[in-house]
Amino acid sequence: MKVDNRVLANPKTKSETGLDYVKSSIDLNTPYGNRKLKEIKPFFPGQEKELRILLDDLDRMLDFVKKNAKQVAILSEILMEIKENTYTIKRCADSTLSVVEIFEIKTLLLQMSSINAIIKGVELDIPSKYILRDSEELLDDLDPRRDRLNTFYIYDEFSDKLRELRKRKKEYDKRIRSVSKKKRDEIKEEFGILLTPKFDISINKKSEDYKIAQKIDDLELLQEDYLSVIYALKTQPEVYEITEELEELNTDIEMEEAIVRDNLSRTIAKYKDLLLENCEKIGDMDFDIAKAQYSIKHKCVKP
Fold this sequence. Notes:
Blueprint: H1 5-9, H2 11-16, H3 19-25, H4 31-38, H5 48-67, H6 69-80, H7 86-91, H8 99-120, H9 136-142, H10 160-191, E1 200-204, H11 208-214, E2 219-224, E3 228-233, H12 237-270, H13 272-297
Antiparallel strand pairs: 1-3, 2-3
Helix pairs in contact: 4-13, 5-13, 6-8, 8-9, 10-12
């Protein structure tokens, strides 16, 4: 009897055969695994070979899950933290990624590295569909200090010019603080009032210092309530001059950081195919682990 393929794939058949129930019971961890579940299709007559390959892969995943409970638990924790990065990966060739987006790509690379370490560390014949392509070179590009921490910053190592600009900024900051410290010391010597390292002071209104502080031209009222006041050191004329120069320097730093982000985006774009392929493999792995765990829980057997 000839089977109508359309019947096998229609919603009514999926519901009546229990396929929809099984799909809703599969516990997935990643957006890539969920995509695999949504894309699932029935095998039609003539596709027996493809079905056997899939079942054999699932058999090996079952073996992996049963024999490596600890590794699977660690793997599941990593998979749960993986975000959807497909759009970012695809657009990096034509757009400059933000610091947050580059951080998310670095996070994904660290996760890929951890997944591969677990998969390659087990003494089983793991199907190649689960083994991720090596992405350490790109990770090195995004992690110039090789510390492998799950953080991202536009490091000085990305640009000699940026390093020099930031060095100059620190010098400006020191000059501003030096001017403020000098004035703080003068106020202490002349009036006996000691400002905090933040160049402010909280004074009780009933104290003698309150009367003195009111007469100091270099202090300004910052905050007041019925019991006390907070005075802060006024910005000194010399500081205004330094600040104007510092604002120009900050603009130069922002421009150089944008250049670095653009260069890193182009670098990521070179690995676009590798990253997308690895995301597909992560989806396969997540989906098959979930199927294996469902099979174990419900005592399913290979047809």
